[in-house]
Known about the structure:
Blueprint: H1 21-43, H2 53-58, H3 65-86, H4 100-110, H5 113-125, E1 131-137, E2 142-148, E3 159-165, H6 172-175, H7 179-186, H8 192-203
Helix pairs in contact: 1-3, 4-5, 5-7
Amino acid sequence: MPFELPPLPYPYDALEPHVDEQTMRVHHDKHHQAYVDNANKALDGTDWADRSVEDVLRNIDQIPDDKRTAVRNNAGGHANHELFWLIMGPGGGRGGEPQGELASAIDDAFGDLGSFRDTMNQNGVTRFGSGWTWLVWNGSGLEAYSTANQDSPLMQGHVPLLGIDVWEHAYYLKYQNRRPDYLAAWWNVVNWDEVARRYEQARG
Length: 204
């Protein structure tokens, strides 16, 4: 079954003032839709057309050479954005701090929540050009790093738990070239409940 654009799980203006309504409309309706359309086009007629996006990305090296770059960029963009919309949220899940086992794991891996945020932000600020800054489950513990363009941690066999989009289309309308300001503000909209759910699922 072809990939589909998932509906945004909250109103476009739900993350104001930290992520603005206009950015959310363009980001979800235009950018993410383009990744879906282009991924479907690239996979059409192949044995991978009916596979999940996770399967496609975990097996990116098996995609035919003439389609691999398009699939990497667009299926990666689809998977990354599916996660991105869900790990943000309004209301009770907004901002705050992680709880329970996720909080303990972050403390163990990074020292404390502040150090974790600093690491994530620094990885995002220093990512040259476009990309993402990630918290992943690497099979044995938590790890933070950044990737270029729409590359997904799934390509490395890792499970993405939290990812912040540092492409300019994610922040430029509100923050212009001030990527550090965007990253600092972004933590006000993180949905820790969803990140914790992903963490528990990844650990099995």
